[in-house]
Amino acid sequence: MAEFERVIGAEWSFTSDADLELHRDAYSPLRGKPEELLAAAALAPDSTENALSVKYQGVKSGVIREWNDLTPELVRFWACNGVSVMAPFRKTEISDTELSVLARYLAQGTSSHR
Ligand code: HEM
Q1: Which of 6, 70, 80, 112 shows the smallest number of beta carbons within 10 Å?
Q2: Atom number in ligand 1 closest to CA 54
Q3: 6-25 pLDDT, tens digit each
Q4: pLDDT tens-place string over residues 17-46
Q5: How far apart are alpha carbons 40 and 76 in whole angstroms?
Q6: What's the gap in Å between 16 CA and the centre of ligand 1?
Q7: Is 63 in the pocket of ligand 1 (CB under 6 A)?
Q8: What pTM value is reported for the model?
Q9: What's the domain range around 91?
Q10: Which residues are CB-contacts of 44 (< 8 A; sequence separation ≥ 6)?
Protein backbone atom coordinates (compact mmCIF):
# COMPACT_ATOMS: atom_id res chain seq x y z
CA MET A 1 0.00 0.00 0.00
CA ALA A 2 2.86 2.36 0.85
CA GLU A 3 4.26 1.75 -2.65
CA PHE A 4 0.91 2.57 -4.29
CA GLU A 5 0.72 5.74 -2.20
CA ARG A 6 4.22 6.69 -3.28
CA VAL A 7 3.34 6.26 -6.98
CA ILE A 8 -0.12 7.82 -7.17
CA GLY A 9 -0.17 9.96 -4.00
CA ALA A 10 -1.82 9.28 -0.65
CA GLU A 11 -4.76 11.52 -1.60
CA TRP A 12 -5.67 9.05 -4.40
CA SER A 13 -5.38 5.93 -2.22
CA PHE A 14 -8.48 5.04 -0.19
CA THR A 15 -8.59 2.54 2.65
CA SER A 16 -11.00 3.91 5.28
CA ASP A 17 -14.21 1.99 6.01
CA ALA A 18 -16.28 4.96 4.75
CA ASP A 19 -14.38 5.02 1.44
CA LEU A 20 -14.54 1.26 0.94
CA GLU A 21 -18.26 1.21 1.70
CA LEU A 22 -18.73 3.04 -1.63
CA HIS A 23 -17.11 0.10 -3.42
CA ARG A 24 -19.45 -2.58 -2.03
CA ASP A 25 -21.87 -4.21 -4.43
CA ALA A 26 -25.27 -3.03 -3.19
CA TYR A 27 -27.07 -5.81 -5.09
CA SER A 28 -24.78 -8.73 -4.23
CA PRO A 29 -26.68 -11.79 -2.96
CA LEU A 30 -23.67 -12.27 -0.68
CA ARG A 31 -24.00 -8.82 0.92
CA GLY A 32 -23.40 -9.01 4.66
CA LYS A 33 -22.45 -12.70 4.42
CA PRO A 34 -18.96 -14.02 5.19
CA GLU A 35 -18.45 -14.85 1.49
CA GLU A 36 -18.99 -11.23 0.40
CA LEU A 37 -15.98 -9.97 -1.55
CA LEU A 38 -14.77 -6.68 -0.06
CA ALA A 39 -12.16 -4.33 -1.47
CA ALA A 40 -9.05 -3.90 0.68
CA ALA A 41 -8.28 -0.56 -0.98
CA ALA A 42 -9.43 1.69 -3.79
CA LEU A 43 -6.84 3.38 -6.01
CA ALA A 44 -7.75 6.34 -8.20
CA PRO A 45 -4.75 7.25 -10.37
CA ASP A 46 -5.34 10.68 -11.94
CA SER A 47 -3.36 10.16 -15.14
CA THR A 48 -2.54 7.45 -17.69
CA GLU A 49 1.07 7.50 -16.44
CA ASN A 50 -0.10 6.82 -12.90
CA ALA A 51 -2.59 4.15 -14.01
CA LEU A 52 0.14 2.33 -15.94
CA SER A 53 2.65 2.70 -13.09
CA VAL A 54 0.16 0.99 -10.78
CA LYS A 55 -0.68 -1.69 -13.36
CA TYR A 56 2.92 -2.59 -14.17
CA GLN A 57 4.34 -1.89 -10.69
CA GLY A 58 7.86 -1.00 -11.71
CA VAL A 59 8.12 -3.74 -14.37
CA LYS A 60 7.53 -1.11 -17.08
CA SER A 61 7.59 2.67 -17.05
CA GLY A 62 4.25 4.48 -16.71
CA VAL A 63 5.22 6.48 -19.80
CA ILE A 64 4.20 4.57 -22.96
CA ARG A 65 6.78 6.39 -25.12
CA GLU A 66 9.51 4.74 -23.02
CA TRP A 67 8.29 1.18 -23.70
CA ASN A 68 10.25 -1.02 -26.08
CA ASP A 69 7.81 -3.92 -26.46
CA LEU A 70 5.04 -2.26 -28.49
CA THR A 71 4.21 -3.15 -32.07
CA PRO A 72 2.11 -0.88 -34.32
CA GLU A 73 -0.51 -3.69 -34.51
CA LEU A 74 -0.85 -3.78 -30.73
CA VAL A 75 -1.22 -0.01 -30.45
CA ARG A 76 -3.88 -0.04 -33.18
CA PHE A 77 -5.69 -2.91 -31.47
CA TRP A 78 -5.82 -1.12 -28.11
CA ALA A 79 -6.87 2.20 -29.67
CA CYS A 80 -9.71 0.54 -31.64
CA ASN A 81 -10.88 -1.75 -28.82
CA GLY A 82 -9.96 0.15 -25.68
CA VAL A 83 -8.10 -1.42 -22.77
CA SER A 84 -9.31 -1.62 -19.20
CA VAL A 85 -10.58 1.87 -18.32
CA MET A 86 -9.36 3.44 -21.60
CA ALA A 87 -12.23 3.97 -24.02
CA PRO A 88 -12.03 2.70 -27.64
CA PHE A 89 -11.61 5.26 -30.43
CA ARG A 90 -13.91 5.48 -33.45
CA LYS A 91 -12.68 6.18 -36.96
CA THR A 92 -14.41 9.56 -36.69
CA GLU A 93 -12.14 10.35 -33.74
CA ILE A 94 -8.87 9.11 -35.20
CA SER A 95 -8.52 8.22 -38.90
CA ASP A 96 -6.72 5.09 -40.12
CA THR A 97 -3.85 7.28 -41.35
CA GLU A 98 -3.52 9.18 -38.07
CA LEU A 99 -3.63 5.96 -36.07
CA SER A 100 -1.00 4.31 -38.30
CA VAL A 101 1.36 7.24 -37.82
CA LEU A 102 0.74 7.29 -34.05
CA ALA A 103 1.16 3.51 -33.79
CA ARG A 104 4.49 3.63 -35.63
CA TYR A 105 5.63 6.50 -33.42
CA LEU A 106 4.78 4.67 -30.19
CA ALA A 107 6.38 1.43 -31.41
CA GLN A 108 9.64 3.22 -32.30
CA GLY A 109 11.53 1.86 -29.30
CA THR A 110 10.78 -1.69 -30.39
CA SER A 111 13.42 -3.29 -32.60
CA SER A 112 11.19 -5.48 -34.80
CA HIS A 113 9.36 -2.82 -36.86
CA ARG A 114 6.63 -3.90 -39.20
C1 HEM B 1 -5.39 7.05 -29.93
C2 HEM B 1 -4.88 7.49 -28.78
C3 HEM B 1 -4.39 6.52 -27.73
C4 HEM B 1 -3.54 5.46 -27.87
C5 HEM B 1 -2.83 4.97 -29.12
C6 HEM B 1 -3.40 4.86 -26.53
C7 HEM B 1 -2.62 3.77 -26.24
C8 HEM B 1 -2.55 3.16 -25.02
C9 HEM B 1 -1.72 2.03 -24.70
C10 HEM B 1 -0.75 1.36 -25.67
C11 HEM B 1 -1.95 1.71 -23.41
C12 HEM B 1 -1.27 0.60 -22.60
C13 HEM B 1 -2.13 -0.63 -22.57
C14 HEM B 1 -1.66 -1.60 -21.50
O15 HEM B 1 -0.51 -2.06 -21.53
O16 HEM B 1 -2.44 -1.91 -20.64
C17 HEM B 1 -2.93 2.64 -22.87
C18 HEM B 1 -3.44 2.62 -21.60
C19 HEM B 1 -4.26 3.59 -21.06
N20 HEM B 1 -4.79 4.66 -21.73
FE21 HEM B 1 -4.55 5.07 -23.68
N22 HEM B 1 -4.18 5.58 -25.65
C23 HEM B 1 -4.80 6.60 -26.33
C24 HEM B 1 -5.65 7.54 -25.79
C25 HEM B 1 -6.03 7.63 -24.47
C26 HEM B 1 -6.85 8.69 -23.91
C27 HEM B 1 -7.42 9.88 -24.68
C28 HEM B 1 -6.99 8.40 -22.58
C29 HEM B 1 -7.71 9.15 -21.50
C30 HEM B 1 -8.79 9.87 -21.70
C31 HEM B 1 -6.28 7.17 -22.31
C32 HEM B 1 -6.20 6.56 -21.09
C33 HEM B 1 -5.52 5.39 -20.84
C34 HEM B 1 -5.49 4.77 -19.52
C35 HEM B 1 -6.14 5.28 -18.24
C36 HEM B 1 -4.70 3.62 -19.66
C37 HEM B 1 -4.37 2.61 -18.59
C38 HEM B 1 -5.39 1.50 -18.70
C39 HEM B 1 -5.21 0.48 -17.59
O40 HEM B 1 -5.39 0.82 -16.43
O41 HEM B 1 -4.92 -0.67 -17.90
N42 HEM B 1 -5.70 6.74 -23.47
N43 HEM B 1 -3.27 3.52 -23.89
Answers
A1: 112
A2: 40
A3: 888 999 999 999 999 999 99
A4: 999 999 999 999 999 999 999 999 999 988
A5: 34
A6: 29
A7: no
A8: 0.74
A9: 68-114
A10: 8, 12, 13, 14
